[in-house]
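Run: sequence + LLZGTKA7 -> complex structure.
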Amino acid sequence: MVLGPLSDQHFADRLVSAIIRKGTPALVGLDPRAQSLPPGMLASQSPHDIAAAYQKFCCEVIDVVAPLVAAIKPQAAFFEQLGPAGCTALAEVIRYGAAKQLLVIVDGKRNDIGTTAAAYADAYLGPGDSSPWGGDALTVSPYLGDDSITPFLSTAQARGAGIFVLVKTSNPGGGRFQDLVADGLPLYRHVARFVEELADQSKGATGYGSVGAVAGATYPEQLAELRFAMPHTWLLIPGYGAQGGTAADCAAAFDDAGLGAIVNSSRGITFAYERSQYSHLAGAHWQQAVEQATRDMIAEFRTHTSAGRLPSPSGN
Ligand SMILES: O=c1ccn([C@@H]2O[C@H](COP(=O)(O)O)[C@@H](O)[C@H]2O)c(=O)[nH]1
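>> structure
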């Protein structure tokens, strides 16, 4: 791919330049869980103290991964679960990640009828001071139809942000609806077609649009099919690591330049010290486990996918 000048006002351009700078499509998911926090971090079981611990833990993960990866993906559910204190902690984590020059993809899976969708978009999209939460991108459900997605895109484009629409999710039950066939195609391919149209209309200098698609590493054949059917659509891939997906499973999601996909790992990185190969780093050395798991993921993608063609930053 020949890249023109990249704009700092276009989401996919910003994503590409961040990924090229870090030399990896690895994305670190922040899904804090009270029972897995390192010892000593949790003062009590009150929502206020759990939220404070989530904020500290996530910021300390960010300290480790910020030099290594382009983006983080906080999962809103784990913060919202705690009520107002959790929502404040989420905002602080987003702010902290942005201050460390990371792109922040908020995994909220929001949507509603158009006017309400516009309010969600206002809340979550737009780096810096343009939105109260300050996310660079938001995950969005397609189930309410085209007029529920376009308000997100309008706000995203105005603010240099992006959205990722659920197309083929990583969970075992996703096919119950997503694979239903209508007019000769599974439902997820109809969603993919609409998302690709929007991506084409909103493409920047890299050829990728401000609209991306969520597609799981647990469905490698469909990933390959979607890469082919959606040439202007960036893929956000969950399901790697803890859910069983491998780097080889994700290989077909990348373009020839090693771009076009960003791959999430949440538990596998943040709670790496619970995995047998990093268990010697549990306790006081938990951040070393996070760093080693991130470096191992980066190495795996460099070995098994075209992401190995990205320039390798010194020190990684
Ligand atoms: O299809 C989907 C969409 C979103 N997710 C989210 O990604 C992370 C995965 O966490 P792991 O610990 O790496 O399994 C989590 O926040 C999910 O809600 C997904 O898994 N699949």
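>> summary
The beta strands are 26-30, 71-74, 103-110, 137-140, 162-168, 181-182, 185-186, 211-215, 234-237, 261-265. The chain has one domain: 11-306.
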